[in-house]
Specification:
The protein has 5 helices and 14 strands. It is α+β, with helices and mostly antiparallel strands.
């Protein structure tokens, strides 16, 4: 004999009252989270909207870098990697709402493939030795790299000695991240990329858009991008960023350690490196001796 239901569809069975309450509570929780902007999709959209907001880079008139300049740190790429820029590596767990919406510390960084001047890629050259804002940055002079204020939180690019518990996520080399303490661990210096000309350039002004090394003052390791280790973010693909000096057979730093501190071109169309061939930045004449600060 075939089975037939003895109840109509209107008959309520089991814990129907509790199930209705749970369903109603679920709807109310969803609507409340939506009202507060706490849904995952809302957080993702909020993060993308704010961290990819365009930022104006500094347009220099004398061809030199200065304290207070807003720059991008660009690596022109190599055999296993594309052109990339130092970028904030944030996700929805990196967001804070109190007291103001923004990125909370500590926060990761990577070398992102987005070569556009935005909140994620803009850094301010900050004095750590009392040099006034607007004064010229010199080779081997200590400085800090700070994110823009507001959503990026004014965090400092920081590194420390490699340890078993504190190291880069994939390569296990010296970690680089963003922190809110402007300590000695956030001090860096610019070094000429050619070892044979390094002594000649020491103490000279740093030209804009020139290939240089950025070394960590505490550990003396150079900022490096690793093409073998890919990191994905909510809004970008990037490579792992670390502090490690890669040397070739001639004891010269490899292109993993080569960086260009990009400023805006005179037409305001973005970083100079993307507007002109990169070789133009490497053919700068040595600056005159004893320049005015």
């Amino acid at each position: 004999m075939a089975y037939s239901s003895t109840y109509s569809k209107k008959v309520k069975l089991g814990n129907w009252f509790q199930e209705n309450l749970f369903e109603e509570d679920g709807k109310n929780d969803y609507l409340e989270k939506k009202r507060r902007g706490e849904l995952v999709t809302q957080k993702v959209d909020f993060l993308k909207t704010n961290i990819l907001r365009p930022v104006n880079l500094t347009m220099t008139n004398d061809g030199r870098l200065h304290f207070g300049d807003v720059v991008m740190l660009v690596n022109m790429g190599g055999e296993k990697r594309e052109c990339s820029a130092v970028s904030i590596r944030a996700d929805i767990n990196s967001l804070k709402r109190i007291p103001l919406a923004g990125i909370k510390a500590p926060c990761g960084v990577s070398a992102g493939s987005c070569i556009q001047a935005c909140v994620a890629t803009a850094f301010i050259i900050t004095s750590v030795d009392g040099s006034p804002e607007g004064s010229t940055l010199h080779f081997e002079q200590s400085f800090a790299l700070k994110t823009t204020s507001g959503f990026a939180g004014g965090l400092y690019l920081t590194s420390d000695m490699q340890s078993f518990q504190k190291c880069a996520m994939k390569s296990r080399l010296q970690e680089v991240n963003l922190d809110d303490s402007g300590s000695f661990m956030s001090w860096w210096k610019v070094v000429h990329f050619d070892p044979q000309e390094r002594l000649e350039y020491e103490g000279q002004p740093v030209p804009v858009n020139m290939t240089v090394l950025i070394k960590h003052c505490k550990t003396n390791q150079a900022l490096a991008v690793l093409g073998d280790h890919v990191l994905w973010t909510t809004y970008d693909k990037g490579y792992e960023l670390t502090a490690h000096t890669f040397l070739d057979s001639h004891k010269a730093e490899q292109d993993n350690n080569h960086w260009i501190l990009c400023t805006s071109d005179s037409a305001g169309k973005g970083p100079v490196t993307l507007s002109h061939p990169p070789s133009a930045a490497n053919n700068e004449e040595p600056p005159p001796a004893n320049p005015d600060v």
